[in-house]
Design goal:
Distance between the termini: 33 Å
Radius of gyration: 18 Å
CATH architecture of the largest domain: Beta Barrel
Structural class: mainly beta
Shape: globular
Number of domains: 2
CATH class of the largest domain: Mainly Beta
Helix content: 10-25%
């Protein structure tokens, strides 16, 4: 589990064939965290497992992950090119400050950036897959590329929502580089998903068994 508070950014070093799907290697020039094999890391919002001990390089620590076809198909990771930037966060511990929201690292779908507003305030308009719109709640939480954000505006009829980005987010994450047409990983709030699932499948007038 994660908080959606990005701790560092990394750069894709390589994405090569592997028995499990693809071996993804990320270079981390400015991250002090040193994970062990088996640890969970959120890479742009995708929970991945460290596959081998970190390797040192002149340009920063190298982290290797095995990425299965399901993850490659349902997230932006399969479309990354070497040099592409990613957000990084290690999993929470009992002493972690919960400053974001509960993030599982299970991407629900890939959305597209419809509009980037930079005047007055920095806002992103995101068009998610239609099936995700019921989970997008005004003033609720959403995770974009691993970043915990508050939903600023929702338009269910047109199928989009907006988030506002503060200077700290623009400085410390990859979201400031998004442009119209950019793909973005979306994870809806697990609490909202649970409520919607229960109401859809277990109506309140269903007799108790």
């Amino acid at each position: 589990m994660f908080t959606g508070l990005v701790q560092s950014t990394g750069v894709l070093e390589s994405l090569s064939p592997a028995p499990a799907g693809r071996r993804l290697v990320v270079r981390c020039p400015r991250w002090d965290h040193r994970p062990a094999p088996g640890d969970s890391i959120a890479v742009s919002g995708c929970c991945l497992t460290v596959a081998e001990p970190p390797r040192a390089s002149p340009e920063g620590m190298l982290l290797a992950f095995d990425v299965v076809p399901e993850t490659l198909d349902r997230t932006t990771l399969g479309g990354l090119a070497p040099g592409g930037a990613v957000n990084l966060e290690h999993s929470v511990t009992a002493s972690t400050l919960m400053g974001g929201h509960f993030v599982q690292g299970h991407v629900d779908g890939v959305g597209r950036i419809d509009r980037v507003q930079t005047q007055g305030q920095w806002r992103l308009r995101v068009a998610p897959p239609p099936a995700l719109m019921p989970y997008i709640v005004p003033k609720g939480s959403v995770c974009l590329d691993g970043v915990s954000l508050t939903i600023a505006e929702v338009n269910p009829a047109e199928g989009w929502f907006e988030v506002a980005l503060i200077p700290t987010t623009l400085e410390r994450t990859t979201l400031g580089a998004l442009r119209p047409g950019s793909a973005v990983n979306i994870e809806a709030d697990v609490l909202v998903k649970t409520v919607v699932h229960v109401l859809r499948n277990y109506p309140l007038d269903t007799p108790a068994r």
